[in-house]
């Protein structure tokens, strides 16, 4: 169903972060609850309005266990799990459900103690997503997730002449944006030389090409238009969404230089009735620097192969032509696992004008009016894109 033809408009009416960064004293369930309470308070709505819950990544019966912990008894649920793209895909599903009258208000909530669990020995870092199904044919060769992204980056470099320095610029600019975010985990400035001289993780990625590992949580509350007059903040409307999956194994990936955002982005923009040129800021999943670069291409902000030149000279900074990952992204702000929901939180805060020192202003000192959040799952296996508008 096209978002522009939805019988009922849908708005983001509440967003919030739980504690993020280094959180050694809380469980993932506690972070879910903290984020949910804060998002509900941010909305100004009573919890009785919430009749939908979307959650993934926690418990054997997600979102059943999360709903029980939060004291909710939803009549609409979604546990779609497609990696980092999960939350943009869920936002699309929730918007469709609300528009169709199947729910009044849907809470999207996430929490993870990925960093604390490893430090405490409760889990170990994983090299593979599993050794069953199609991926079993790649696992014996040590084909880890980061290796897959590294191969894709190398292919882009080979095809289009993208340079290590251009990839490094993505990390440098993310850190510069994080410097204005008091909630970011890392805020000290870095240079291209710092990125290039770091320890090698998976060629061509050094440490600073890779996202950090943190704890944290967040929540987003979507509601039908009739509840907007009762909310505490300016509504941010869901204008259009798109989702796409492309492959599970590298052998079935037709082109390493094209991500599924090429499809999800096109669908989201078409359904919103806007063009990439209309967008004021972009929140893009950035587990690795290459993800930002290729997603910018695939969303249509520049032509295929021109992402390297696009990210140079501060173009993606807070005062740049297209501010990207304004909170510092997964490279510098936080990355507690499936980070896609954080993209929606930051986009909403920017559109509301609540981002403080990192607030984006467009020509004429006006607040941004349109934003896009695009999540990526797996090794470019899935993508979800959401176009949001203020007022």
TrEMBL record:
Gene3D superfamilies: 3.40.47.10. The keyword Membrane does not apply. Residues 242-390 form the Thiolase C-terminal domain. The keyword Transferase applies. Keywords: Transferase. Pfam families: Thiolase_C_1. One of its GO terms (molecular function) is acyltransferase activity, transferring groups other than amino-acyl groups. InterPro entries: Thiolase, Thiolase-like, Thiolase_C_2. PANTHER family: ACETYL-COA C-ACETYLTRANSFERASE (PTHR42870), NON-SPECIFIC LIPID-TRANSFER PROTEIN-LIKE 2 (PTHR42870:SF1). This is Acetyl-CoA acetyltransferase. It comes from Streptomyces nanshensis.
């Amino acid at each position: 169903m096209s978002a522009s033809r939805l019988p009922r408009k849908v708005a983001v009416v509440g967003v919030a972060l739980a504690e993020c960064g280094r959180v050694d004293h809380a469980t993932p369930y506690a972070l879910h609850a903290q984020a949910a309470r804060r998002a509900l308070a941010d909305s100004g709505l009573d919890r009785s309005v919430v009749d939908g819950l979307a959650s993934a990544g926690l418990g054997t019966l997600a979102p059943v266990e999360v709903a029980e912990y939060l004291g909710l008894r939803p009549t609409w649920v979604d546990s779609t799990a497609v990696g980092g793209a999960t939350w943009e895909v869920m936002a699309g599903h929730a918007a469709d459900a609300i528009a169709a009258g199947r729910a009044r208000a849907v809470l999207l909530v996430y929490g993870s103690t990925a960093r604390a669990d490893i430090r405490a020995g409760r889990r170990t870092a994983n090299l593979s997503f599993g050794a069953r199904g199609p991926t079993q044919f790649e696992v014996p060769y040590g084909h880890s997730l980061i290796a897959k992204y590294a191969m894709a980056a190398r292919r882009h470099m080979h095809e289009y002449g993208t340079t290590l320095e251009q990839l490094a610029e993505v990390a440098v600019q993310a850190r510069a944006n994080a410097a204005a975010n008091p909630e970011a985990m890392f805020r000290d400035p870095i240079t291209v030389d710092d990125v290039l001289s770091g320890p090698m993780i998976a060629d061509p990625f050094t440490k600073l090409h890779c996202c950090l590992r943190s704890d944290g949580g967040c929540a987003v509350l979507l509601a039908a238009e009739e509840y907007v007059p009762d909310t505490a903040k300016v509504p941010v409307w869901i204008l259009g969404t798109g989702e796409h999956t492309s492959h599970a194994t590298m052998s079935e990936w037709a082109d390493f230089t094209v991500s599924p955002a090429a499809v999800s982005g096109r669908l989201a923009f078409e359904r919103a009735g806007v063009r990439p040129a209309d967008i004021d800021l972009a929140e893009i999943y950035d587990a690795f620097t290459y993800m930002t670069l290729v997603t910018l291409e695939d969303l249509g902000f520049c032509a295929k192969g021109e992402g390297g030149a696009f990210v140079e000279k501060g173009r993606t900074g807070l005062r740049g032509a297209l501010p990207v990952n304004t909170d510092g992204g997964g490279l510098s702000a936080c990355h507690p696992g499936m980070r896609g929901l954080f993209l929606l939180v930051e986009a909403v805060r920017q559109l509301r004008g609540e981002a403080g020192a990192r607030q984006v202003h467009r020509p004429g000192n006006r607040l941004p009016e349109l934003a896009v959040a695009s999540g990526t799952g797996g090794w470019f296996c899935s993508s979800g894109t959401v176009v949001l508008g203020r007022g």
